Amino acid sequence: MKSARSPVAVWRGRDLFDGRVAESTTVILRTRGCRWNRCVMCGYAQEGVDASAEDIIAQFRSILDKVEGAELVKIYTSGSFLDPAEVPEAARLEILRSLRDMDVRRLVIESRPEYIDRLALEQILSFLDAEIGIGLESSSDLVRTYLINKGFTFFDFTGASDMIHSLGGRVKTYLLLKPPGLSEMEAIADAMRSARDAEPYSDIISLNLCNVQRNTPLERMWQRGGYRPPWLWSAVEVLREASLKIPVICDPVGAGARRGPHNCGTCDGYVAAAIRSFSLSQSRADLNVDCSCRSVWRKVLELEDLSFGVPLV
Ligand SMILES: [Zn+2]
Q: b/e map of 207-243 (b: 16 or more CB within 10 Å)?
C-alpha cells in the first residue's frame, strides 16, 4: 500500500558539483504526480497518491538523517516541484528552511516550464543555490511534440531558462536518447543536435537513456516489436562526441535489462560503469571500453534506416 507519508525513494550518492565530486542525496517525494501526464514513455504518475502539504512535510522529515552531510540535495517528485497543486507552498517553504538550516549547498529540483515563475524562483534562491531540471528531451519541436507528446516548445524551454539565469539560478537540461519512432542512427543525431542547441541555455546536460516503463504507450509499442531501447554504445557515442563547454552526465538507469538501454548482455555492466565514471570525471578516456558487439551496433546504424523503422537487433 502506497503511503502518503513515505517517499517513493531516497538514496545517497556522489555527483559532479562545480567540477568536483560531492556527496549527494536524492529524494523522490510521493505527490499526486505530473499534471500533464501524457508523455509516451512516462509511467511515473502510477507512483502518485493525493499527498497534502502535511504529508509531504512528513515524508521529507522521515529522510532527514539521509540529508545530513550532503552538499547537494536533489528533490524530485515524478512531476514538477514548482507545480503548487503537486507541492503546496507550505511544504516547499518547510523543505527550503530545513535544507538551509542543514547547510546544504545546492538544491536540485525538476519542473515543466509552465510552472517556472519568478516568485517561486526568487523564494527558492533566497534560501539556497538552486538548479532547476527541465525535461527538454529533444531540441526538435517535431520530435518532442509528435514522438514524445511533451506539450511544450523549445521556445518555452529557452524562456524558462532565461528567467532562471536572470535570477541567478542554474539550469539542468534533460535530453532523452532514443524517443520512439527514431532509428538508432537518428536517435544519436537528435541527441547530438539537441545537446548543441540546449548548451547556451544550460549549465549541465543530463542524457537520459530511454527505458520501457510499465503501462505506457511506449510499452505497447515495445511489446509489438516496434521499439528497442538505445544501445549503450549510442550513449557512449553521444557523450564522447558532443564536445560541449558544459558537463554532460548520464546515469544509465536499467542498463542491461530488456526494458532498459542495453548492448549484448556480456558488456552491459562495464559499459554502464564506464558511462558512470565519465559522468563524474568528464574524461573521455573513461569511455575507452570495447566488446565484439560494437561491430553489430555499427551494422545496425548502417542498416536500420533501410528497415522502415523496425528494430533489427
Ligand atoms: Zn557487448
A: bbbbbbbeebebbebbeeeebbbbbbbbbbbbbeebe
Q: Which residues pair with 283 in a beta bridge?
A: none
Residue 174 phi, psi (nearest 5):
-90, 130
User: In angstroms, what is the span from residue 294 Cα to ligand 1's centroid?
Assistant: 6
b (16+ CB within 10 A) / e for 278-293: bbbebeeebbebebeb
Report how far residue 211's alpha carbon sits from residue 208's, in angstroms, rounded to the nearest whole number: 9
Strand locations in the chain, DSSP E?
A: 9-17, 20-28, 72-76, 106-110, 129-137, 170-177, 204-209, 248-249
Q: Please compute the mean of the pLDDT values over residues 172-176 and round it to a whole number.
A: 98
Please identify every residue whose CB atom is under 5 Å from ligand 1, which is an ion: 263-264, 266-267, 291, 293
Q: What distances in angstroms separate CA 188 from CA 213, 215, 266, 275, one per listed residue?
A: 21, 26, 23, 16
pLDDT tens, position by position, 247-276: 999 999 999 999 999 999 999 999 999 999
- CA of residue 289 to ligand 1 center, whole Å: 10
* Edge-first strand listing for the sheet containing 106-110: 9-17, 20-28, 72-76, 106-110, 129-137, 170-177, 204-209, 248-249
Cα radius of gyration rounded to whole Å, the chain:
19
| CA 206 to centroid of ligand 1, rounded, Å | 24
